[in-house]
Amino acid sequence: MEKTSYRLYGYRWVVLAAFMFANLAMQTLWIAYAPITGPAARFYGVSDLQIGLLAMTFMIAFIPLSIPVSWAIDTWGFRPAVSIGVALMGVFGIVRGLAGANYSLVLAATAGIAMGQPFLLNAWTKLPALWFSPEERATAVGLVTLANLVGTALGMVLTPLLTATLPIPQVQLLYGGVAACAAAVFLLVAREKPPTPPCPPGQEARALMLDGLKHALTVRDFWLYLCITFVGMGIFNGVSTWVENIVRPRGFSPTDAGLVGALMLV
Fold it and tell me: Which domains, from first to last, does the chain contain?
């Protein structure tokens, strides 16, 4: 009987770092307008609600795209699926920066970025399953989670500081350039899987498990957990999106709003 060997490659950390960079850039693009809602509304000549829509577009897009994207990750593979996401992020991140004061084009570009986000968020467990041993997977997922939080915090803190000296489109172009760099790095260094698997068969993970989902929907505790998570994420995303509107009537500046938003992540 042929004996199968398993091996962990040091290159797994390179792939993970590239994936973390892409997630960090995506979250910065998501939250970039939240701490400057008032100034952005004046610059584009629109309402605060329309500026808030730039962040809400990501949440709106995620709902219908989540399951199809999870299917794509399992069917096409980790690298091809995530490559679609980072390509959308890089291209439309640049377009948003080049849109100038054209709010309609900014919104359209934001929708393009938002369509790429599920390809990154729904692949969090896929990469560790392909490259890491079962004992390391929680660490890998935790590092990707950290990258997301850092990206959000950077968007909160840096945007008000940068817009104090640079026009809003220039700041967005800067973020778009970073996103394009993150996309290029991922496309250059990411690999689907190592030559030798990191674990025996049967210990892989899928992004979409309909059989498991069907069973989970029959469990009362799962529904309770789902409701708590739904409310918690809704509150966090809502406060993050409207943080500048919340603190503005109390005399706080956009810079203060960014700091408040970042402190929520601590």
Answer: 12-195+206-263 (1.20.1250.20)
